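Good morning C.,

I know you're traveling, so I'll keep this short. The sequence:
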Amino acid sequence: MEPIQWSRWMSVGNDDLDEDHRVLIEIVNRLCTEASQHDPAVIEATLDELIAYTRHHFAAEEACMREANYPTYAAHKALHDALTRQVERYRETFLANREGISGEEVFIFCADWLGKHILKEDTRFGEYAMTGEPERAVG
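The tokens, ready to paste straight into the viewer:
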């Protein structure tokens, strides 16, 4: 599997949040190789770090949103909460049965979620934070 690659299109215009996103990508990318996907110690450590770092990052990002009076803050926070719950469920399933979840499954889910979330939701907030205007729908 190919690792997630940071691109300028992922930037939200906030250096701290962009750095957090890079760290999250690095954490998820630890599960992009076949060897790591089959190593229970790597899977467990990655899930633990991902849970801890997403909590840190989501708190910081949500604080920025509240400060900016972001109009869709509640919906964005709900997305954060859903991801946190899903990764916690992966960890619980893994700890209960190390065969119950694969590192590949975790990587695919997190890579897909993270890429889509940053490119769609977080960049929308970045645009709002820079302009004070909600992103306008094109159509």
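Safe travels,
E.
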